[in-house]
Fold:
Amino acid sequence: MGQFEKSHWAEPDFGRKFVESADIAIIERKRSHSVMKSFFRHHFMHKDGRIDLLDLGCGDGILTYELKQTGCPLSATLVDGSEEMLRKAEERLKAYKDIRTMRASFQEIIAGNALTQDFDFIVSSLAIHHLDLKEKRELFGWVYARLRNNGCFMNIDVVLAPNEVLEEWYMVLWQEWITEKKKEAGITGDIYGDTMKRYKDNRDNKPDRLDLQLDALKAIGFRNVDCYYKYGIFTIYGGKK
Ligand SMILES: C[S@@+](CC[C@H](N)C(=O)[O-])C[C@H]1O[C@@H](n2cnc3c(N)ncnc32)[C@H](O)[C@@H]1O
Structure:
């Protein structure tokens, strides 16, 4: 059994529950999509021809869908370990041409043969933290190899705080976000109250410090490496080939 099959994401319904709760439970989800769209427009809007996009751990395809809204000609490949999530992505993107979905785990991708095409923009959202640091580094290396020159990588993801004091506060900040969003949505009761505990207790979550991930990108050869946005443990970072 592969790593993905051992994870909660291989269980029926786990993905559905994530999709249903994401707008409340994920800090600044819409904002992070806006930041990515701005980055995309800034780097790619002026280019001739179609942009080849790869969405790693695409889930229900929300990120590709949002990038499609920029109107920039885009040919997208969406990859996920879960067939269930890929079906949701196909449903969300059914109005668009130039969409290809593929079932593969990150481990299979790193191992080599699942994807051999080159891309202009490789993105991921809230998925790479399911890899340990060694696997993250291997995936970043794979991403670099698959990017065309001047291509970009951008990852929306959760990270580990630099120390326990900050980690503790970031959990409080997250709880405050959820309380605010619940109020706005008119949601009462204890629903979402255990979000942080479930995040911490989930063995599939393997967040690493942001500086280690930025260093890994730099060591591989990425330019313009930076954290483009941060709110507690929620970050957006990346670089250019
Ligand atoms: C939290 S969801 C994020 C989905 C989507 N990118 C979003 O932002 O809504 C994480 C996704 O990563 C996928 N995933 C988790 N571990 C994986 C692995 N080892 N290989 C491939 N996909 C994986 C899950 O199936 C799921 O669709």
